[in-house]
Amino acid sequence: MPSTDTRITIPNFMASWPSSGKGWPWDATPHVESESIKAESEQWMRSYDGIEGAFVDKIIRGRFPDIACLIYGHQTREHCLLQALIMLHFFVIDEVTDHEGDAAVREKADAMARALRNPDSLASMPADTWVGVRMAADISARYHAIGTRTSWQFFVDTFVDYLDGVVDEAAARDKPILSRAGYLALRTKTIGVLPGMAMALIECELQPGFLDLDVAKSLMGLTVLILIHQNDMYSFDKERARGEDGHNGVRVLMEERGLGVQEAMDCLGRETGDLVRQFVRLCENLPRLEDETNDEHFRVVRDGCVSWIIGMEVWYTQVTSRYGMQNLDKDRSYRPAQC
């Protein structure tokens, strides 16, 4: 539905987040080597045959390696670089599959899943193998070289689930807008946060059942929902201008409840603010797990979730030129591309 709003305000859903200096585990200070990490990840991407320079330029302009530097800047340079490569891989997948049918996307997803599970396959791949498949094999080999066996299993399982979600998204692209429940079920797979949580645990040999603990699932589940809504609010204007907002939570609310853009933004902002408050309460009242190893790993998960929420907020509002959110005024409002 067309909007009559001449300015749109993105709600301040982070209003209840504790201010810095209150004992929280991470701040948004970029990695000291962030420029070299960004340069090396760009060089990695340009090293692949079969990928056009203009396509690489488009992705580099999006400043996706900055995400890794913001979220993983407290880890080793090697880990941060690997996540920067993963972020570039995500957006190669996103840019290409957004314009293909579900059969073609399924073929690519299955090939990437095989490459992830068998990194040695890179050496025998034909030169004309799609670049996303070759990237997947390279990322797999790099992870195997520095990560634990159990964190790797978490990573590959959630990455393959993400790929399945990309296929489902392609199949739903030309169909009526999904229900809210259907949209969130799909977006939980395609948001790509859980492979990132595996990266946070890359040095941890996880004990059986750790990922099924209620407290760990609560932290990660809240984080995933917050990040879905956060992305929807910040990306809505860009997606609407390109006619790609059919799979955006703001549009889903507009269609399902008969709301205007600002009404849907406000509704989603209130819901996200409630989720943020739940997350903060959980972090401030963090239970102590009886098993010392599980407890240590649980706190790694907590720190990773905090890093993702804050890091993405910084990226959307201060770093990326992809969404133009640096143009938000002091009231967090902007002039929509289409009124």
From TrEMBL:
Entry-linked InterPro entries: Isoprenoid_synthase_dom_sf, Terpene_cyclase-like_2
Classification via Pfam families: Terpene_syn_C_2
Cofactors demanded by this protein: Mg(2+)
Enzyme Commission (EC) number: 4.2.3.-
Domain of life of the source: Eukaryota
EC category: lyase
Alphabetized UniProt keyword annotations: Lyase, Magnesium, Metal-binding
Keyword Signal: no
UniProt record similarity statement: Belongs to the terpene synthase family.
Record-given protein name: Terpene synthase
